[in-house]
Amino acid sequence: MSLKSYIITRIILALPMILVLLILIFFILRIIPGDPVLAILGGKAPVEVIEAKRHELGLDKPIIIQFFDYLGDVAKGDLGVSTLTNRPVWNEIKDRFPATLELTIFAFIIALVIGIFWGAEAAWRKDKPLDISARVYSIFIYAIPVFWLGLMLQLLFGIYLRWLPVGGRLSPRVSLDIKTGLLLLDSLITWNWEAFWDVLKHLLLPGITLGLVISSIFLRMVRNNTVLMLSKDFVKAAKARGLKPRVILYGHAVRNAFVPIFTIMGMQFALLLAGAVLTETTFSWPGIGSYLVLKIKYRDFPAIQGAIIFFALFVVIISIIIDIVNALVDPRVRY
Amino acid sequence: MRKKFISERLGEFISDLFGTGTGWLTFVGALILIFYIILAVFSPQIAPYNPTERVGRSLTAPNDQFIFGTDNLGRDVLSRVIYGARIALMIAFIAVAIAAGVGVPLGLISGFIGGPFDRVLTLIMDAIYSFPGLILAIAIAAVLGPGVINIAVSIAVVYTPTYFRVIRNQVASVKSELYVEAARALGAKNYEILMKYIFPNVLPSIVVVLSMNLADAIMTEAGLSFLGLGIAPPTPDWGFDLSNGQRFVLSKAWWGLLYPGIAIITVVLGFSMFSEGLNELINPTIRERR
User: Fold this and answer.
1) Does A234 touch chain B (CB under 8 A)?
2) Rg of chain B (C-alpha set)
3) Which CATH superfamily is domain B6-289 in?
4) Position A210 in a domain
């Protein structure tokens, strides 16, 4: 199969999945107890007004027609209007998405750094304290709820040591021109070092919290694959050539251990997103996760539906991208 | 394949550390579980105070009278942690029962009859499975509102596909075994084949998935209630108490945050150790197969 037809097949295969998810979301959010029209207008509105609103929202049509209307709207990128703010849900999500993206990318990098370096060093010193401590670390990091880890880091670094802020993305006193919405990038391209430092300080705690949670998976993968690679002949050959241990470890063993690791990394994405919802709430991080939780508090159903659809599409798209990149890296995947 | 269960991954980490064939791991896990079950069942006898009543000054640091301190409403944190085991275990058990109660029969039938029915159901289950579990549970909990059963249902929806997939795949492979064919040749009815020959063969996997699922259900419940989607206050609940405690993080009231968290961690570890041990005992090859 050529790469092009692989990509097309992969996208076509994802369509029924997306459809099923959209159907599920539609019906789950239609079994809401209570009348959404009354929720918007309040109980005392006159009957004519209620009927007019019902007609306006298309709620007087048969459910199957409503469903196709909804599918058409989603396809057009129209996620409805928030009942809380009267703004289009898509715009609100677009405004908040960079915050989530920045947090997850940062967390991913932290997890990678921990995973690669600790994993490689643990593999090099197999069954020594550094290796055993890596395994103990993995167990605890995985049993700890991500929001509790966040709370503990807040308490230690934010409250007791006062090194880092405990919430938000940017201090009110710092000014920054927002261009991409990724504040770290924005402050870099405008050479605003004060803002860069401030943004980084805000990003550290939530980023570390989220990053630690998935680091254990990378750590295990890197360690086990590197141990395997270290026993291979090419490592022996490298040793025989008198290469430095660092070069053998990182240049040869870890590098070759990386192909299976890449696949696993992609699979952690759904976990990362779920963790992001909790982390964002813990650190008042203005992303999609805290948006969802906020809208649930106000029972703003168009916004809730929009956020969930956004998450669903996001997961599917990321998994497609990862499959494609995998196929690029390893041609065997395509067959 | 992606691992759905936190405890499945945790089990891996645990056997990485201790090696395989560790019966004592199951034993320690079981001890932790028994400890929490006793706490849950006998909370009124064990807890020193009423968990929903003001018994001391607000935000008292741990002392002789309140060894875990008091929360912002002067309620005893220790008593709330003890009673919290009740709600955590109750919701986890109900959620797991619902998930297994729906997923197992569907998996049995789907794997057994195959065809378009199987394909459609597999597609639906895969769609749910691929979705981030917590976010799905949040959506359903938001719609259903608070209440023990509602929370349990939201959690159960997330884990039903796991039962479905494990059972369906096993049934699909078991059904072409020679002994099933023999039973059919002897005139056994479909129902008999399913219940007498296939079900006993997939039962061990169900038990293992069940025990893993409990740890995850507790974790998810804590997450939901931390986000304010759990059962209504003032019922003691670890996740809710943590979100309540966070409001007083600035007054350095660490005791309201530390203890409920430790309770969640130990109970999750307990279930994971237990299920990992069980996994090895019941079915040494199960991990390769899944």
Assistant:
1) no
2) 22
3) MetI-like (1.10.3720.10)
4) yes
